[in-house]
Amino acid sequence: MSFYQEEYQFHKTALSDLQGAWQNLRDTVVESHPFKDSDRLIFQIDEAMSWESVNNLKHMGNVLLLINNIAIQAKAPEEVVELIKLVRECFDATLEDIASGKISFFPTQSHKKHMPKSGIAQDIFTEREKQNYLQNTAIINWQEAAITECSDNIIASCTTEHEYIKKAFEFVRDEILHSWDYKTKVVTCTATEVLKNKTGFCYAKSHLLAALLRAQNIPTGFCYQRLSVEGKGYPYSLHGLNAVYLKEYGWYRIDARGNKEGVNAQFKPPIEKLAFSVTEKFERDLPEIWCDPLPVVVKTLQSHKSVEGLYKNLPDIQLL
Q1: Between 1 and which of 49, 110, 117, 305 could a Cys-Cys bridge form, CB atoms 3.0 to 4.6 Å apart?
Q2: Rounded to 10 degrees, what is the CA torsion of 24, 17, 283, 187?
Q3: What 3 state SS string does 30-41 have?
Q4: In the Cβ-directed half-sphere of 306, how many Cα atoms lie within 13 Å?
């Protein structure tokens, strides 16, 4: 589970607060260890922070109840008990914000052949929420002629929405060159810039894919991972990808950064096939889906003129 705070105009959500509350609770239990049943508490806290629980908030609620009972029976330190109460408050606030549509939350897809058609993401996706993920903006400028023409060309050979999403994804993944992989000469940001120059970093490519999908009235948002730049620890940076709303499954993450040796992102719902997985201590899968790219990402792309300069200053976030 991740807790993060963006330095530049980042809007922290109730889900972020929940993540931070869990981490603070765990750190406090570890610092207070040993006390009666502290090992059990750590085990259950890790269960609550696992991706199984993040994917199923009902399960997280059940584990939280168990943690509270263990702490009471063990007469845990007062600070631990207070932090459990804080986790409960953050948990309740998260459920309220999800139910109201204030934030959009999606479960990471498991490697099962069939996913349930009900759940949080599907149930709270109202018409108002949908419109947030269809907006035409200065960055996701899907109403520009170049974007609509490209979209029309792709959809001409499609018979279903599913087929269009797959082909649009593969077009951006395969036909738009990743700027660093190919050492291209221009830094792009807006969807039209990416399409015109046929190149972009992962963030920019996600902007184009969102524009192509929104051009066909398909809700599309932005997701991020925090990854090691070279796969060897520090430095770290954000990695940008998309989430598309599929009628059959709800939110589904796709990564059009471009395949290469060791990278094989695919569109095979409901199974998620991203370019990268989180493996290191300070890497994170960030769970929110944003209707707009993060401001720090846009600022970074627009502040650098060379691919080399951008690579040396990739956007990152602080972990708390």
Answers
A1: 49
A2: -150
A3: HHHCCCCCHHHH
A4: 3
Q: Which residue has the tokens 């095979």?
A: 268
Quick one: average pLDDT of 56-79? 83
Q: Each residue of 9-25: pLDDT tens digit? A: 334 567 778 888 898 99
Q: What is the pLDDT of residues 251-297, one digit of tens each?
A: 889 999 999 999 999 999 888 899 998 888 889 888 788 899 999 99
Q: Could you please report the per-residue DSSP string of 198-220?
A: TEE-HHHHHHHHHHHHHTTT--E
| CATH 3.10.620.30 domain extents, the chain | 120-319
CA–CA gap between residue 78 and residue 266 (Å, rounded): 49
Question: If one looks up domain 120-319 in CATH, what number appears?
Answer: 3.10.620.30
- Quick one: pLDDT at residue 104? 59
Would you state the torsion angle of the CA atoms of residues 207, 209, 212, 218, taken in this order, to the nearest 10 degrees? -100
Q: What is the mean pLDDT of residues 83-103?
A: 81
Rounded to an integer, what is the distance from CA 106 to the centroid of its chain? 9
